Structure formats: structure tokens, C-alpha cells
Amino acid sequence: MNSPLSAPSSPSLDRRSFLRLTALAGGGFVLGYSYLKTAGTAFAADAATAAAEFAPNGFIRIASNGAVTLFSNRPEIGQGIKTALPLVLAEELDVDWKNVTVVSEPLDSTGTLQGASGSTSVPTDYSRLRQMGASARAILVEAAAQTWNVPAAECTTSAGSVLHAASGKKLSYGALVAKAATLQPPDSAPLKDPKDFRILGTRVPNVDNAAITTGKPLYGIDTKIPGMVYAVYEKCPVFGGTPVSANLDEVKKLPGVKDAFIIPAGNGPTAGVAIVASSTWAAFSARDKLKVVWDEGARANDSWADMSRQANELGAKAVDSDSPVFGTAAKVVEGNYSFPYISHTTLEPQNCTVHLQGDRADVWVPTQQPGQVRTAAAQALGLQQNQVTVHVTRAGGGFGRRLQTDYASEAAAIAKRVDAPVKLTWSREDDLHHDYFRPAGFNFLRGALDASGKIVAWRNYAVNFGAAGGGRRGGPGGPGGRGGPGGPGGPGGAPGGAAPRGAATLLPAGGGNAVFGQVAPGGAPGGQGFQGGPGGGGAGGAPRRGGPGGGRGGASFPGSFVGGFANATGTVVSAVPTGAWRAPGDCTSAWVDQSFLDELAQASGRDPLEFKLDHLTAGPAGAYKDRMLGVVRLAAEKAGWGKKLPKGQGMGIAFHSCHAGYVAHVVEVTVAKTGEYKVTRVVAAVDVGSQILNLSSAENQVEGAVVDGLSASGFQSLDLKKGRIVESNLDEYPMLRMPDSPPKIEIHFLLSQNPPTGLGEPALPPLAPAVCNAIYAAMGKRIRAMPFSTADLKWA
Amino acid sequence: MKYTLNVNGQNQTVEAEPDTPMLWVLRDHLNYVGAKFGCGVGMCGACTVHVDGDSQRSCQMTVAEAGAKKIVTIEGLSEHGDHPVQKAWCDHDVSQCGYCQAGQIMSASALLKSKPHPTDAEIDNAMAGNLCRCGTYTRIRAAIHAAAGAK
């Protein structure tokens, strides 16, 4: 079974090679398939397992008593995948959902495709899991047909039984598994017509609801292993700093403390000081007495105030010599936008439990990337990958934070020094100080309208903040987008290739480039000649996956839909580590783009919706345009766009596509004369393809994206002083609470004829600009800086 | 120090430093992990338990302060997980990641004891101390109304 295979270039595998049927000792069978390890893809860094290999990974188990167990192999981080994917199996298998038990799968022997990122689980797994369920059903039908000596074509299935209408015979799946286990999976198994779906598209409650609502141990932080000790890990508050010495002897005498030691910089985690104790509190308390002398390194004088100043200076120098367009335009609009660093703030702080026993180790971890956890843990432990077992727990939130493996690496390095299972628990302060933050950015925009109100120029000079000259901090979630070269004076080049991982924030020092039409290296979006004609797209990296402030090119908006589009990038050096934050890149670029579009619309004097629809309609034909028009029109219609509202109330619309989903939000706000704003209603129109897997979970994701979008853009901001993050806990880092949550979030799914795609991310980006557009409509003030709580919205 | 605590109707003895927050006594010493650690400063509400019937942040009460007070955690809210609030949470499929929900349920059940039929504003006010990072607030509101109706 483990015969080496060459890496396939596409995921379409021969069914015979990946279906595997295994008889169970106690009767029953497991039907599974192997994910092929594909070298050269996202997991190529995983060198020890980069070679192609087979590893069986069972998904369906049917016992002879009829019990159906479905395995879910994606990390559950709150996106509902543990429930959603088994629904696909159950639908095609044709079993009663109430007879199904869902079990989380540990990391398989390769780890391939077991991540949770980029809203990719559904598009990756939907078709294969349908096929999987259908194949299992076909085997059971064949078993019944042979038992009854009738043609399989005359048999049907219903709720876990095979039926033969002509003879009135019926056998449950459980009664058929012994026979079925002797059969070979069929060459092809017919899939259901989606109109016959009974489970998919309905509202199915989360399979862990009972455990969640009764407080069962589900999360990484709940892990308890006999003999376990508890660890904390202190790192230098200045990024890149290292410990020189610490009062370890004193700390070791504190109650409950078992050990304290420095972990120097090396192959494992960021250098720091570990304290190991008999309980979490003993470790936390001892840490209060810990005194560390740090070598703070080169960035100890960095501050957000200074970085902002540098960004504004770069922006001011970003001379656009394309004056003819602006000189002849009927109207010129300028707007400078900025957004700060923010944290992921998963409510479950980072944690990891490691039990090292000789030459093997077990790791329990809330993660979005179990395969990379194994790599990081093996490296820190000095083990081979196949000596490390990763147990994937439910995660108390992900949002991109748990794409990183820093905490697992720390736990492993501590476990190497301790002769017991050890659980590392981060404090909230650790979490806010040592995140891989959502990138901050400044965007300097200049646009122009001709006399007919058409956009004839759209320039965006984006200033990003990046580490100087290295990839050390570029974590695996870094949304890099290598821009295609844009030729001066002509349309841009082909879309950039796959993003080099970790490249997003790694622009070289001094990368400030004030000349449009040149391409900043690294994660910057590709530029376009600033003489480029109307509609000349082609700028940008891989669509919607560009670095911070990027991803505007390709066939998407605005690059291909407005005249005179150009994008250039500058960089201010920063040591603040950044990573993927829910809808990376898009979560801020959509706010800039859709706010500025609204500025242009307002300048045109036309109804913003009509203005936006006209520019979408005039764009290049294709799925992007059709799907975007679909959601914009649907949201506007459901919201009752155009209704007359008194001053102080307003309605705003924004749209965006990312992660293969298309979303438009209409937001209604009330702005008090004293300046407080409240979102009173959100109408979301969402196109994530032809089929919603679990309607309840899908609605929950959109509701959550709306609240997260409001919270992040409305409240959240991190400051940097003396090279360290200033805010330490939730008293200083406000997040949206129930009184600020919109009373009404109305969600409309537009089922287009496209393959189903994921919903963890696409509903977030257009929320923030819809809020700002609504606030402008309410009282005429344009918000150009996040968080919105800093805006003065008083009016009279 | 040795402390005898009344947790979920049972007297239990633990050995802990007097300044140990009840949260960690519950989680590390008594294996009641339903109360969650989110911030340690009383700002997130994930550690909410009932103390003599009122909701309280277990990270803000030390084991020494607990004395003979009756502490109820999510594990002790109902015998079979069928408290009206727990049922409403399942019926409304409230959870996303679920990490905050034990705390939300403890706050909501305490609210309904004092105000059996709260208004939206009363719910917002009573629940403002419980963060949900995933943003399930509209479902929490609906579930509380449903639980109020079911009582």
C-alpha cells in the first residue's frame, strides 16, 4: 500500500487508487481514501514527508449493528467544519443523521490537507466526500443485490437501508456490512441529484453542542495527562530581543515551582524563560516574581507614532506624475486611509501539551495546521516527524492565529527539559504581546471622474510595514502575493504566481517606492504603468491573495473595473511580526477600496448604488462580474435601498470577493448628534456557490463575520512604544460586546451555478466599508482611519 | 493551605495557595474545566460560575474567599445538561468555537433567575461582561428569550 507515487499535478485521482475498503474485526467495514502527499505544494516545507506516499485515512465506519461513524479530519476552530463535512458523507451515503456519530480524526501520517485555512475545506473536500459517500452506498447496494439475487439497478436506499421495491425486501446497512466488506469499491458510483438532498442545505446543529453546553473537556487548554506539569514562557517584549540572565534560583524556590530555565535562541522557539510548576496558578504566580535581563536588540526604540510618521512621509512623496489624467478630469478625489496592527485574540489563549517519552512524543494542541505543528515540535524535540503524534483538539477560535506553530515549538522545547508531560499556557498578555498581528497599513488614494461621472483614474499608493531583509518572522499564514510585473505605459503583466510563503511582510528595508509602475519586491502587489488606459487590468498578484493592501488586480474589482487603475507600494521597516488574520489582505483592502469607491460615487453626485452598479456592469464579462452584480442587487433589494431616512440615519453598501465567495452588505446606522454610532441592521447577500452544506452554520459564519468586522474595525487597535506592544489585556483592548451587536443581521444566500466554497472569511471584508458608507450617508463624515471609535462623528 | 469547598453540591478538599483564583482550583485541582480561562482579569466572562446563586467571575475570587459559599459550575447547572438555557443554546445552535459559551450560559441562567422575562436591553446589559470572539450575540439573545419562554 505504501508504494511510492509521483506527485500528481491535480487532485483528480483514480478512484481505485484511493478508495480503500477495510473489514473490521467485529464485522462492519471502514471505507477510506488516502490524501496523496503532493510535493511542491503548500506543504513542501515539510521535508521529511515531502515524498509522495499513501496513508489510509478512514472516513466512514459502519458497524454490524448499523451504527454509522463518520470521521472529520479538519481542525474545528469554530467554523463548523466538524459538522459540515460529515453531512456531505451522510447525504450521499443516505443515512439518517440522527444515527450518525462524528469523531475527530487525529493528524494522519502525512498531515496533508488537514489544515483549516483560507476557507478551503469545503472547496477541497466537497466533491471527494460526496464521491466517498456515494461509493460506500453503492457497495451496500451491491451487497443487497447479491444477497437477494436481483439487479443492483433495481435497488434503492433510504435512511440507512437498501430496498427492493418489486419484492418488498429491505435490509439495513448494518445487516449488509459483512457482505459489503468482501466487495470491491465500484468503478463509479452515481451521485445524488442535489434536488434530492435531504440533509445538505438544512439547519443541522453543531455535533459538539451537548459537550460545549455542559462544559466537557474539548479544547487544548482542557488537556490533562497523568503526572502533568504546567509551564509558562516569558519572551522579550521587544520583538527580536533575547534573555541574558534571570533570577532563576529565586524563582525555583517559589511555591509549586519545579524548574525554571532559559531557552536560548536556536532551532526551536523564540528565546525566552520557562517556568515549570505544579499548577497553572503556581506557574503564573512565580512569573510575577521573575526578573529577566533582556538584550532588547535593534528595535527597542520603534514606535507606532514614528512608523506612522514615516508612512505619511512616504505617502506625501508618492508623486504621481500622471498629471494629464488628473489635469483634464472633471473631478479629483483624494483620501488617505490607515489601519493599525490588531491581534487575533482567540478567546482560548495559545496552549500546547507535550508528552515526550524517549524517542516519541505526543502533542495535544488547538491548531489550524497540525502538520506544521508536527514539524515544529519534531524540530524542537530533535525527533523525526514520524516520532511525533499530533492530537488535534477543538480550538477556541482560530482566525489565522493558529496557523502559526510558535506555541507548539515552545511547549516542545520545554518538554525536552522536563521529565513529565507538560502543558504550556499563555496568558492573555502573552497573546496580545506576541501575536502574528494583522498587518497595519497606510493607503494614499487619488481618483478622478470624467464629466460623465465615470472613473478615469484610481491610484493607490500603499505603505506596508515589514521586517528588514529576512524571512525569520514570516510565518506560514503570510498572505504573500507576488505581483506580476507591470510594464510602464501599458497594461500590467500576467497575474503573479503562487505567493512565496511568508513573503507578505518581508519587503526589504527602504523599499519605499514612490514611482507608480514599478513593482516592489516581495509581497507587494504588482504595479501597472501609470499611463495605462482605462480598464487596463492585469496588475496584482494572484487574485485576492495579495499582501497587505494588495490583491486588487487580476479580474477583480477595482483593477479591471475602473479606468486608470494603478497600485504601487512602499515599505516602512518594522519588526512587528504579522500573519494571516481572517481574510488576510482583503480584511483591510476591501475597506479602503469600497470606502474610496463610495467617495467617488458621492463626488459624482449620483446614487452610490447606481454608480457602483454602472461600474460593475461596464467591467469585463465573466463570472466575477456576474456573481458580484448578483449579490449587490440582492442585498440592495432585500434592504430596500433608496428609502428616505432622516439625518443621522444612513444606509451604506459595499461588496467584495475573496476566497472564492462573493458578498455584499447593506448596513444601516444611526449616528447620534453626540457622535456615537450604532449599526441597527445588516443585510448580507452571499454567493458561495450552488450548495450550502449546513444552513445554520453558514448563517452563523456570516453573523460572526459581521460582528467580527464591526469589532475589529470599530474598536481594535494596538500601539507600539519602545519596541513593545502597549496594550496588555482586554481592559485596554476593547472588543465588541452584546450591547453593540447589531439587533438584526439578515442573510440571503444566492445559490449560483458554481462549486460550493468556504464561508469562514468572505463575509468579513465588505462589512467595515459598508459601515463607513452608511455613516457618511447619515451625516456626511468620511471615516478614513481604523478603529472607527477614534472618529469624531458629532453633528448638529 | 487546605480548603474545603462546596462545588456542585459536594464538599471537596483542595490544597492550594490562598491567592489561587477559584478558576484554577476548579480547572487544575478539581477537574471542572467548563469554566474557561480567557483573560484572568474579569473582562471576558469565560470563567463565569454561580456563587450562592449569583454569577461571578471565578478568576476574580480566590480560594481563600470562597469559604463555605455554594459554587456551581456549568458541570453542575443541571444533572443531564437539560437546563432550559442549555437546551435553548442547543436548539438555537448558538456556538461557533464554543469556548465562551459555558460562561455565557452561566450568566444567562443567573439573569433568568432574577429576571424571568428580560427585555433585549436587560439581556444586553446582563450579558455585556461576556465576550464572544466569534460573534454569536444575536443567537445568544434569541436563546435567552427562548429559555425565558420555556420556563
Low-pLDDT segments, ≥5 res of chain A: 1-19, 33-57, 469-550
**Into how many domains do the coordinates of chain B divide?**
2
Backbone CA Rg of chain B:
15 Å
The fraction of residues assigned to DSSP E strands of chain A is: 15-25%
Strand portion of chain B: 15-25%
Helix content of chain B: 25-40%
CATH superfamily of the largest domain in chain B: Beta-grasp domain
Oligomer: heterodimer
Secondary-structure content class of chain B? alpha+beta
- Terminal CA distance of chain A: 75 Å
How many strand elements of chain B? 5
Largest sheet strand order of chain A: 11-12-9-18-15-16-17
**Largest sheet, strands/sense/barrel of chain A:** 7 strands, mixed
Label the overall shape of chain A: flat
Write down how many β-strands of chain A occur, each being a DSSP E stretch of 2 or more residues.
27
Architecture (CATH level 2) name of the largest domain in chain B: Roll
- Annotation field: number of helices of chain B: 6
Largest interface: A-B, 69 and 61 residues
Spans of chain B of 5+ residues with little confidence (pLDDT < 50)? Answer: none
Task: Note the main attributes of this structure.
A: 796 residues, alpha+beta, 5-stranded mixed β-sheet, 17 helices, B: 151 residues, Ubiquitin-like (UB roll), DNA polymerase, domain 1, 2 domains, 37% helix, 15% strand
